[in-house]
Write a structure and sequence with these properties.
The chain is an all-alpha fold. Helices cover 72% and strands 0% of the residues.
């Protein structure tokens, strides 16, 4: 399987997801602000501001994950230590969010989250460092059978 196309597709999906998360959080923050909702005495301005900030931070995080994947795909080299850590946290985040979306959103959202998780994990595994193969045990003589053990 080709590593480059998988990494580029995963990058495109994560960048699109970042834009989607920012837009959804902007919409929710705008709705809370316009309706002057309050939850447990928290001011609606505070809730809308934190929704905007959360959307921006999470969108930035997903964009960083997408850029790491894009760089790996363009260079066709494994991401460095920081990049691998970012991608591992991205995979864990998608696993946890996928588990939450089953009950809150539905199976279609779960399938999307698991698809993104599969792409990220596939890239991590395809760019995993290859360990050198250990040589097989060579016979100890000039082609003669091994000596029997003394009793």
């Amino acid at each position: 399987m080709a590593r480059r196309p998988v990494a580029v597709v995963a990058a495109i999906v994560l960048l699109a997801e970042a834009v989607g998360i920012v837009l959804i959080n902007w919409f929710f923050g705008h709705a809370v602000h316009r309706q002057h909702m309050s939850l447990g005495g928290v001011d609606s301005d505070t809730m809308s501001t934190t929704t905007y900030v959360m959307g921006g931070v999470f969108g930035f995080y997903l964009a960083v994950c997408g850029v790491v994947l894009l760089i790996a795909g363009v260079r066709d080299r494994a991401p460095g230590r920081f990049g691998r850590i970012v991608l591992i946290t991205c995979a864990v985040t998608h696993g946890v969010l996928g588990a939450l979306t089953v009950g809150l959103v539905g199976w279609a959202a779960f399938a999307f989250m698991m698809g993104v998780l599969a792409l990220v994990v596939l890239v991590l595994l395809m760019y995993a460092p290859r360990l050198p193969a250990e040589p097989a045990d060579a016979p100890s003589g000039e082609g003669s059978p091994p000596e029997p053990a003394a009793a």
